[in-house]
Amino acid sequence: MTVMNTQIIRVDAEHPSDSLLLPAAMALRQGQLVAFPTETVYGLGANALDAAAVRAIYDVKGRPGDNPMIVHVTCIADLLPLVQALTPLAEKLFKAFSPGPLTLVMLKSPEVPDVVTAGLDTVAVRIPSHPVARRLIELAGVPVAAPSANRSGRPSPTRAWHVELDLAGRIPFIIEAGNSEFGLESTVVDVTADVPVILRPGTITAAAIREIAGTVLGAGAEMAANDRAPRSPGMKYRHYAPRAKVVIADNPDLTARALQVRQMADNLITDGQRVGVFGCAELLTELPEQAVTVIYGQTPDAAAAGALLFDALRRLDQAKVTVIIAEGLSDRGVGAAYMNRLRKAADTMNKEK
Ligand code: TXA
Ligand code: MG
User: Fold this and answer.
1) Distance between CA atoms of 248 and 201, rounded to whole angstroms?
2) 104 lines ligand 1 (CB under 6 A)
3) Ligand 1 atom nearest 103 alpha carbon
4) Cβ–Cβ contacts within 10 Å for residue 110, how many?
5) What span, in angstroms and rounded, lies between the C-alpha atoms of 310 and 162?
6) Cβ(216) – ligand 1 distance below 6 Å
7) What is the pTM for the complete model shown?
8) C-alpha angle 265-266-267 in degrees, rounded to nearest 5
9) Strands 34-36 and 43-47, how do they pair?
10) Closest Cα to residue 182, out of 153, 145, 148?
11) Which of 39, 185, 191, 223 for a ligand 1 pocket mutation test, highest count of atoms within 8 Å of Cβ?
12) Where would you tag: which of 165, 243, 252, 283 has the fewest CB atoms within 10 A of its CB?
């Protein structure tokens, strides 16, 4: 891996200046990698039509070669060349939720290099809403393949410093424009059949998709089954792991959960662990003073917890805690996405320790 100088370009999140974005957009177009903010997480972009550029993403991230990437465009017209056809189902879902945190898996056209889709006959496409992502893609003038801009297995980046920590010295540009609004990656939905199948839950919920499509698979109990036998290749890998071990306090009753957190923290501290806690203010009462806390809001709220989760994992790592106690929430609505990421972070499978 060649070490390079990484230029950090700060832009306004709502009205980024073209002159600041242009050098990065041209580099992107010409085959270099650029990390950029989106409304979900920061992405690591490459020209999706340039197989060598996309191959470099796998190297830089340490990403397994069988895990395909999402291609980002700014409008439906620009995705048409990438797919076999825009089916009525895909059109309905894009019209309802794009630009925004929805990714649709569709049959791919020959224009999309195999390295983007890891040899699959489908391609995942997303139309982001973040003004900086949109302007960068427009200026580059090419579709942009972009996984999350973290080293493979680490928490997805929702702040520019997360990207810097993982990728500085490995890529030429990081575009910085504040916090990612949703903080969890897009909802990935397979629309190659008549019934949409959720491959990865996100802030666009199963209920919202059902409302538009009339039906949906892969929610609730089926989602857990999907996690075991993943159709979305990326879902089988260890993900979102901070260096600390993660445990979940998941008593459904808030008062009982607060007691659960307190007891877990007491026991861990007695065992000589350095403890971090992530939860809402009402959960974190009477904790031992040694515990380091990151609070996402006053009361239980999956959207607020999801927006802060990955940042909290990284901040608690920086505070050098050895165990993170994280608040478990109901699997309903956005809770499905939050709990999906949290369970993966807590999974001790394949964990190098
Ligand atoms: O919000 C997001 O989706 C962010 C931002 C940057 O757009 N991107 C992101 O990319 O999370 P990544 O690579 O970390 O996750 C992409 C997911 C993986 O689980 C991958 O396996 C799945 O989408 N995926 C990509 N192409 C697919 C395909 N053709 N069929 C099934 N799953 C696919
Ligand atoms: Mg990722």
Assistant:
1) 19
2) no
3) 3
4) 8
5) 9
6) no
7) 0.94
8) 90
9) antiparallel
10) 148
11) 185
12) 252
